[in-house]
Write a structure and sequence with these properties.
By secondary structure, the protein is mainly alpha-helical. Helix content is about 55%, strand content about 5%. The chain has helices at about 20-35, 45-50, 55-70, 90-100, 105, 110-120, 125-140, 155-170, 215-225, 240-255, 260-265, 270-290, 295-325, and strands spanning about 5-10, 40-45, 80-85, 145, 180. Helix 10 packs across helix 12 (about 270-290). It binds adenosine-5'-tetraphosphate (AQP). Adenosine-5'-tetraphosphate binds near residues 151 and 198.
Length: about 325
């Protein structure tokens, strides 16, 4: 990519059904960035296998993530979309960065602690090492900005630490990337528990609105979503975490500010508010799914192949440079 634009890099794991948290927290901002930046969007399949995946479903899940990208408005003529495991430079650089990362760096990662808690006996080394692979993903492409949801901010910070440490030890090599987090919606919370983030791997389907949920099912999930004590529709993350979360979703899907919504619902109770939000969510999903189901698997495979061809020379050039710095070449 020979131009003066900055480069952004981000990705999604094909680890299950994507939810409106992935969409509102991360993917939406990518769409807006396509005209201003060189955009590279990865399907991070090697990250997904850090926990168990069903091999019979996995290749379809990879294609489905790309369909979500396209239905969200990512344009493959403007942005590069590719599959992480197609480019072996990612895992090669991850190994090298493993030798730069300290155990103490990784021991601080809160996402690992949370995920490992669920499966103490069988947690994989890959899950522990996930942030180093993510650093490799980012650093291979001279990335300026990494737009992600709040849960990934600590991992981007680690990528910065590793890049700086490598540069200090072996000379200027990596650009230091910046994290970009949305002001509103960077952490959409679970509908069944507003103290925890909405998550693909949640044990209950009541936790999330999947982008592929039947709109009728989704409207029921909203009407059944946990609320706070009292009846006032007010944004207050501490006192009213559930209503604040629903207000955030409403605001982002309707393009109305939270203040506007507070005024609109000031004399109305939770019932009216949730009924309106359910309708907004249902309409959004209907529109989204019309696009999502229109894409053909073969066209998606072609987009991924094109993407790999474009990123391959960039990634291997960066890897060669790193190997030279280490004295491997
Ligand atoms: N609840 C969320 N609110 C806002 N943004 C979110 N993201 C994830 N959950 C929320 C952002 O979505 C992007 C892709 O996420 P990922 O595929 O890398 O998975 P994750 O961050 O580990 O979260 P998930 O989707 O809940 O997956 P599981 O359950 O498999 O861990 C990222 O930018 C992420 O920040």
């Amino acid at each position: 990519m020979i131009n003066n634009k900055k480069t952004i890099f981000s990705g999604v794991q094909p680890s299950g059904i994507l939810h409106i948290g992935n969409y509102l927290g991360a993917i939406v901002q990518w769409v807006e960035m396509q005209n201003q930046y060189n955009c590279i969007f990865c399907v991070v399949d090697y990250h997904a296998i850090t926990v168990k995946q069903d091999p019979k479903k996995f290749s379809q899940q990879i294609l489905d993530v790309v369909k979500i990208y396209l239905a969200s408005g990512i344009n493959p003529d403007k942005s590069i979309i590719f599959q992480q495991s197609d480019i072996s430079a990612h895992t090669e650089l991850a190994w090298i960065l493993n030798c730069v990362a300290y155990m103490t760096d990784l021991n601080r990662m809160t996402q690992f602690k949370e995920k490992a808690e669920k499966n103490k006996e069988t947690v994989s080394v890959g899950l522990y090492d996930y942030p180093v692979l993510m650093a490799a993903d980012i650093l291979l492409y001279n990335t300026d900005i990494v737009p992600v949801g709040e849960d990934q901010a600590q991992h981007v910070e680690l990528a910065r630490t590793l890049a700086q440490r490598f540069n200090n030890q072996f000379g200027e090599t990596f650009k230091i990337p910046e994290v970009m987090i949305k002001k509103i919606g960077a952490r959409i919370m679970g509908l069944d528990d507003p103290t925890k983030k909405m998550s693909k791997s949640a044990t209950s389907v009541a936790n999330y609105i999947a982008l592929t949920d039947d709109p009728i099912v989704a409207t029921k999930k909203i009407t059944r979503a946990v609320t706070d004590s009292g009846s006032e529709i007010k944004y207050d993350k501490k006192a009213k975490p559930a209503i604040s979360n629903l207000l955030t979703i409403y605001s982002l899907l309707s393009n109305k500010s939270i203040e506007e919504l507070e005024i609109k619902y000031q004399d109305k109770g939770y019932g009216v508010f949730k009924k309106d939000l359910a309708e907004i969510v249902g309409n959004f999903l209907s529109q989204f799914q019309k696009k999502y189901y229109s894409f053909k698997d073969n066209d998606i495979r072609e987009i991924l192949q094109q993407g790999s061809k474009l990123v391959e020379p960039i990634a291997f050039k960066a890897l060669k440079n790193v190997k030279e710095k280490l004295g491997l070449l």
